[in-house]
Amino acid sequence: MNIVCVGAGSMAESMIHGWINKRIMKAENIAVMNKSDLERLENLKDEYGVNIVQKERVELRDADFILLAMKPKDVEAALTDIKDNLSGNAVILSVVAGVSIETIQRHVGNLPVARAMPNTSAKVGKSATGVAWSKWVTLEQQHDLRNLLSSIGSVTVVDESQLDAVTAVAGSGPAYIYYFAEAMTEAAVANGLSPADAKRLVRQTFAGASDMLQHEDFAVLRKKVTSPNGTTAAGIAALERNDFKGIIGECVKDAASRSQALGREFK
Ligand SMILES: NC(=O)C1=CN([C@@H]2O[C@H](COP(=O)(O)OP(=O)(O)OC[C@H]3O[C@@H](n4cnc5c(N)ncnc54)[C@H](O)[C@@H]3O)[C@@H](O)[C@H]2O)C=CC1
Ligand SMILES: O=C(O)[C@@H]1CCC=N1
């Protein structure tokens, strides 16, 4: 199986890292191309052993899967640029936020197109990925796509209309968690801990809690920490007073709306 990554930024790198780490792909079967940054491609070649798409672009013609991993505004130019080099057998796997299967097919014709929304935890094999595909994707190709995506984490097959929600929760989600970790660290320092100790404590608290989340119901876990009239109850009361759930609700709603807007903007 051959894959060409069109767009070689942080998302493509996370996926390449996951595929090679899990030995689902050999580096020699992966090729990368981008808009203009040859140094970036050379770096990926040095780091992972992947190929760089050559001027003649045989790699594109031989590809079973084309990973589309550029910003939404660059999709049209990228597809216009590669469409004459694609074989009819290639499946396009887009991770671009918002841009619909219909829009992609308008540029390349009735090629099989799948849209996935992974996240950067692909790098450590722990992406939470949602995927939807068009009717042109055969059962065998669906099977290969599941394999490719499950090598970087969990896979949830959804209807394309649900991908905006997947993007808002799982695609963007790691950033909310990092933001929460930053806020906890700042609060720890404000309450007298050294920055180094604060960071170590917060990092391990997140790591331990995220392990626990795998095994028990979220609310049950929370209740087990929360002694009546204790410290956690006081902390949670502050979250409730400040409408923490409302804030998170708005955060996810705005991210999903932005995903829809990107789809309209780059139709
Ligand atoms: N970073 C993240 O956490 C996630 C990103 N995504 C999606 O992945 C896509 C890529 O995001 P990043 O990797 O973060 O962006 P990035 O900015 O790190 O990389 C974009 C890459 O696209 C290339 N590119 C631009 N125009 C091109 C063209 N015409 N032909 C070929 N290559 C071209 C750039 O040279 C660059 O290598 C975005 O659409 C984003 O919505 C999806 C899930 C998570
Ligand atoms: O922020 C973005 O638009 C992309 C999509 C999901 C994560 N990063």
Automatic annotation (TrEMBL):
Lineage, broadest ranks: Bacteria, Bacillati, Bacillota, Bacilli, Bacillales
Reactions catalysed: L-proline + NAD(+) = (S)-1-pyrroline-5-carboxylate + NADH + 2 H(+); L-proline + NADP(+) = (S)-1-pyrroline-5-carboxylate + NADPH + 2 H(+)
Major localization class: cytoplasm
GO MF term set: pyrroline-5-carboxylate reductase activity
UniProt xrefs under SUPFAM superfamilies: 6-phosphogluconate dehydrogenase C-terminal domain-like, NAD(P)-binding Rossmann-fold domains
Name of a matching Pfam family: F420_oxidored
Record keywords, A-Z: Amino-acid biosynthesis, Cytoplasm, NADP, Oxidoreductase, Proline biosynthesis
Source species, domain of life: Bacteria
E.C. designation(s): 1.5.1.2
Domain (Pyrroline-5-carboxylate reductase dimerisation): residue spans on this chain: 160-261
Role according to the record: Catalyzes the reduction of 1-pyrroline-5-carboxylate (PCA) to L-proline.
Family named by the database record: Belongs to the pyrroline-5-carboxylate reductase family.
Pathway annotation: Amino-acid biosynthesis; L-proline biosynthesis; L-proline from L-glutamate 5-semialdehyde: step 1/1
Subcellular locations according to the entry: Cytoplasm
Protein's UniProt name: Pyrroline-5-carboxylate reductase
Pyrroline-5-carboxylate reductase catalytic N-terminal domain location: 3-98
Enzyme class: oxidoreductase
Protein's UniProt keywords contain Ribosomal protein: no
